[in-house]
Design a protein that fits this description.
The complex is a heterodimer.
Chain A lengths: L8 H13 L6 H9 L3 H25 L5 H43 L6 H18 L1 H25 L17 H5 L19 H4 L2 H29 L2 H4 L5 H7 L2 E2 L3 E2 L2 H30 L6 H15 L5 H15 L1 H18 L8
Antiparallel strand pairs in A: 1-2
Helix pairs in contact in A: 1-6, 1-9, 2-3, 2-9, 3-9, 3-15, 4-12, 4-13, 4-14, 4-15, 5-12, 5-13, 6-9, 6-12
Chain B lengths: L1 H11 L17 H12 L5 H9 L4 H9 L3 H5 L8 H12 L7 E9 L4 E9 L5 H13 L13 H9 L5 E4 L2 H10 L2 E5 L5 E4 L29 H11 L5 E8 L5 E8 L5 H12 L9 H8 L11 E3 L2 H8 L4 E5 L5 E4 L17 H31 L6 H11 L6 H21 L4 H19 L5 H15 L4 H39 L1 E2 L2 E2 L45 H12 L1
Antiparallel strand pairs in B: 1-2, 2-4, 3-5, 4-5, 6-7, 7-9, 8-10, 9-10, 11-12
Classes of the chains: A mainly alpha, B alpha+beta.
Chain lengths: 365, 587
């Protein structure tokens, strides 16, 4: 499959930033706060450092195979078997993620604005957007990302800054929250919040050069880290630890307490435009890449015939959990504990195989 | 009583139709019917054979070849000028049905030389040719001045006429009938001479046309007040008047099988990307249509995506705007008989620029462009947001305003979505009627519509007063956008947002924005992404898009057009500024 689409560095960076940060509007902040207490922001900084180290290892692997994505690398290492294994790991892991996210966004929509609408009705709107985006293809998705995502995150930062008068700086203490072991040992598993870096592994053919790939990865992790850190920090300053752990959608709650004089109150509904947009971007991109990986893994020539079946599959899987609590439990127990493995551990394993068996051409000679 | 029963009888019981004269029905032409009958009488191949024939694939080249082949009927026709004058005359008389076609004129005469005489005739269409030129520059020299000459019997009579007799400034010879016919239709006068196998085409066109007037649809306060007319050559001249540049190229072609409309592709050959020029020419020459009387038809046929409401080509009636775009490396298309030029490629942001944006100082323009962005947002989203917020997100509205809205809507029997659709449709009706009304009544109707209808609707508690404000702001917003095509597109899209807002509140609006956005992101205008230079990002994003930088800061042409020369002006374009500074430093 020859790629004729070329994605710019800035477009790719904002694309990955959105993929990583989309869950800020869900419960990612809550998870960090829950894991480290008032030291959630320290945990966030620690996770950025871990992600940078992890990405450094990833880069070592991609440097051996410049211009090739993770499925191509699988092919180089293990021929067709390698290709199918790598493809399936990507597809299944991302299918798991998209289903959980989709359910999360649906529940969020229901709680925030459409309380009386059935969840399937809300899902129809989302799925319609996902299908449309996939039909238009990667070029359009990434271009729209670049146009919208900077605006979305600027508004998010403005919302956070507007809450400054309500912040209580004493909430930062105890500085190390639940303890250093909770932050630096148990907290390391929360590296999963950067699992979406895996989408970058499919971008090398579109980015053309390795330097761009490297730059996109580091910039995306750094900016996402900044967004996570200020979000956790402001949330922690607004809601002291015990009450913070009870908030289901922290950023929504943050927007809710915004009050600017008599006229501008209850801005959370306006905020919903932003997070719905973030959600749609995330879901459509994920679905597109699942289909893309599927076609690449099984050497199928076209993407479009797979769009509707994939959409139906995702919709059905999304509606499987009987309640929001079950899906939230799966997110907490599995997603945040293990989803870092395909992103950071797998490339390490592949790199080890390459080094041992001297695969990958001149760079690994 | 009897009559009454008859009436009842006629009303309720079946009456056999009486024999009346048959009303006009457009029936199939008799000749065609006969042809069909003859075809039907011919033995048909057996069905199996027919099926086989149908299944047999034909190569594309072969199919094209077949399509391009002239009809058998054409083969019988003359393709070259005959040496026999009678043949030429008969052929043209037959071709133009001169017997019934009263405006096609032929004039037979003799060209009398010293010792010989040649029979000749001219043919022209009355009304589109200049009679004075025909009389003074063609007939007079041929019929009177010949007797003054020395020649007895020249070797080549056509050559002799061209070089020694005719005083008409613009003429050329032709042997091909298609060219001759095209020129007659265009307003030329053609001279045929006995024994000559070529004809002379005199350019004596004299179309009745509008003079160069003020623009009607793109009115500006500053800048030139000229607009294109319906005559192609006048329009190209208007562009040449602004761009006095030897690199300005005007390529010509004819579009439309029947209308045979002359079109021109205009560009600066040292700036416009050759790939772009080739693509424009390729699209235009590939058009196989019957009638291309307007640039609007050409626009619809050359744009990339027909099913998206947003226009992908700029149409303008201002020569200065076209010249400005040409100097950026774009290509313009002019169509004869139409005062609007098409400019390609464009981006989404070009559609929100007014011609006078370049003539005004940059802070004013930047402010005006921000106002246009607000106008766009209001025109597109305001009614939808109103419906979404009043139905789903009442908590967003400040308490005082909420009470005011609730109070105003208390007696209104309709839900807000019905209310807004009624008012939007009424507004569209007023607008459409205003356009169709004669000039003096149009504005009056607008005022009556807006004031009386709105006031009456509020008084009758059909709609709430706040809704009148919403609809009015929306309408004004759409009128504040310089491009009429965009304004129309927004009118369609607005209804979609109203429905989405009514069905799912802000969720619906956001989903609408996403689908709208991704549609625009996928659009291209002659290969240029529609959202450039923002996405994909190219250099000098803020030079002339939503904002406008000072003229001296706009050093480069738009990168996304890929012009042959990107530099518009040197880094220091204001030479005086630099020298003045140096002088100050010296002092």
């Amino acid at each position: 499959m020859k790629n004729t689409i070329v994605i710019g560095e800035k477009e790719a960076t904002w694309f990955i930033i959105n993929m990583i940060c989309a869950k800020i509007v869900l419960n990612a902040i809550h998870i960090l706060e829950d894991s480290a207490g008032s030291a959630g922001w320290i945990l966030s900084i620690y996770l950025v450092i871990l992600a940078v180290i992890g990405f450094y290892i990833v880069l070592k692997l991609f440097k051996i195979f410049p211009g090739k994505d993770i499925i191509d690398i699988g092919t180089e290492i293990g021929n067709s078997f390698g290709r199918i294994v790598m493809g399936l790991i990507f597809i299944l892991s991302q299918l798991f993620v998209i289903v959980l996210y989709f359910r999360g966004f649906l529940e969020h929509s229901k709680i925030v604005s459409l309380n009386v609408s059935p969840i399937s009705f809300i899902a129809t709107f989302f799925i319609l957007c996902m299908i449309t985006a996939c039909f238009f293809g990667l070029e359009s998705i990434v271009r729209l990302h670049y146009l919208w995502i900077p605006i979305i995150f600027t508004i998010l930062i403005v919302i956070l800054l507007l809450t400054l008068p309500q912040c209580q700086f004493l909430s930062l203490f105890p500085l190390f929250g639940l303890g250093t072991d909770k932050i630096f040992i148990n907290g390391a598993l929360k590296l999963s919040i950067y699992q979406e870096v895996i989408f970058l592994f499919l971008l090398p053919p579109f980015l053309v050069s390795f330097d761009k790939f490297k730059s996109v990865g580091y910039k995306a992790i750094a900016f996402s880290g900044f967004l996570y850190t200020i979000s956790v920090l402001f949330f922690g300053l607004l809601f002291p630890y015990p009450s913070a752990t009870e908030a289901m959608f922290p950023i929504f709650d943050t927007a809710r307490i915004l009050s600017l004089g008599r006229l501008f109150q209850r801005l959370e509904s306006f905020f919903s435009i932003i997070w719905i947009m973030t959600a749609i971007f995330f879901l459509s991109s994920s679905m597109y890449f699942i289909i893309y990986a599927f076609t690449k893994t099984f050497k199928l020539p076209y993407i479009k015939p797979l769009i509707i079946p994939t959409a139906i599959l995702i919709l059905n899987l999304t509606l499987l959990p009987s309640s929001v609590f079950i899906s939230a439990k799966i997110v907490t127990d599995y997603y945040y504990s293990y989803s870092w493995i395909p992103t950071f551990a797998l490339p390490f394993i592949l790199l080890t195989i390459c080094i041992i068996f001297r695969k990958g051409g001149k760079q690994n000679a | 009583m009897n009559k009454f029963l008859q009436v009842l009888n006629k009303m309720f019981l079946f009456q056999e139709p009486t024999n009346k004269d048959e009303q006009f029905i457009l029936k199939e032409y008799e000749e065609k019917k006969e042809e069909a009958k003859v075809k039907a009488d011919q033995p048909q191949p057996p069905s199996e054979e027919k099926k086989k024939q149908m299944k047999k694939p034909i190569k594309i080249e072969e199919a094209n070849k077949n399509n391009n082949q002239p009809d058998k009927k054409d083969k019988k026709e003359l393709e070259k000028v005959s040496q026999t004058l009678e043949d030429n005359l008969n052929y043209l008389k037959n071709k133009y049905s001169v017997d019934i076609n009263t405006d096609v004129k032929t004039r037979n005469f003799d060209i009398v030389l010293k010792d010989s005489a040649y029979k000749a005739f001219i043919i022209y269409i009355d009304g589109i040719t200049d009679k004075t030129q025909i009389n003074n520059n063609i007939l007079q020299p041929l019929m009177i001045f010949t007797s003054f000459g020395e020649a007895s019997k020249p070797e080549n009579i056509i050559e002799y006429i061209e070089r020694k007799l005719i005083t008409q400034y613009q003429l050329h010879k032709s042997v091909d009938y298609p060219e001759i016919l095209f020129n007659i239709n265009l307003g030329s006068c053609i001279l045929f001479v006995e024994g000559a196998n070529e004809a002379i085409i005199f350019d004596v066109k004299s179309w009745e046309h509008r003079t160069v007037n003020r623009p009607n649809t793109e009115i500006t306060i500053r800048g030139p007040q000229e607009s294109f007319t319906e005559v192609l050559r006048v329009n190209t001249a208007l562009i040449r008047k602004i761009l006095r540049n030897e690199n300005l190229v005007v390529e010509s072609m004819v579009i439309g099988e029947r209308s045979k409309t002359p079109c021109s592709v205009i560009y600066l050959k040292d700036l416009a990307n050759p790939n772009l020029i080739n693509e424009v020419n390729r699209r235009l020459t590939s058009l196989k249509i019957d009638y291309a009387g307007d640039s609007g038809i050409i626009e619809q046929l050359i744009e990339e995506n027909t099913f998206v409401p947003n226009p992908q080509v700029i149409n303008t009636e201002r020569p200065d705007r076209v010249a400005s775009y040409l100097s950026e490396g774009r290509v313009a298309i002019l169509v004869d008989g139409n005062p609007f030029a098409l400019v390609v490629p464009i981006t989404f942001f070009n559609l929100f620029h007014s011609p006078e944006d370049t003539y005004m100082r940059f802070p004013f323009v930047t402010l005006i462009r921000f106002i246009r962005v607000i106008a766009l947002t209001a025109s597109l989203l305001l009614p939808g947001l109103y419906v979404a917020i009043t139905n789903f997100h009442q908590e967003m509205i400040p308490t005082d305003l909420l009470l005011s809205i609730a109070g105003a809507r208390e007696k209104v029997p309709f839900p807000s979505v019905v209310e807004i659709i009624i008012m939007e449709l009424s507004f569209e009706l007023i607008r459409e009627a205003g356009i169709r009304m004669p000039g003096t009544i149009g504005p009056t109707l607008g005022i009556i519509g807006a004031l009386i209808l709105g006031q009456a609707a509020v008084a009758a508690t059909i709609v709430s007063p706040i809704l009148i404000i919403i609809v009015a702001v929306t309408g004004i917003g759409s009128l504040a956008i310089p491009s009429y095509s965009v304004s129309l597109a927004l009118r369609i899209e607005r209804f979609a947002y109203i429905l989405l807002g009514a069905v799912a509140g802000l969720l619906g609006i956001t989903l609408g924005l996403f689908i709208h956005g991704i549609t625009l992101a996928s659009l291209k205008s002659f290969g240029v992404p529609f959202l450039a230079p923002f996405s994909p990002r190219t250099s000098n994003v803020l030079d002339d898009t939503i904002t406008r930088m000072p003229i001296w800061m706009q050093e480069e042409r738009p990168d996304y057009i890929n012009p042959l020369d990107i530099a518009k002006q040197p880094k220091i374009s204001r030479g005086w500024f630099n020298s003045k500074n140096k002088e100050h430093k010296k002092q």
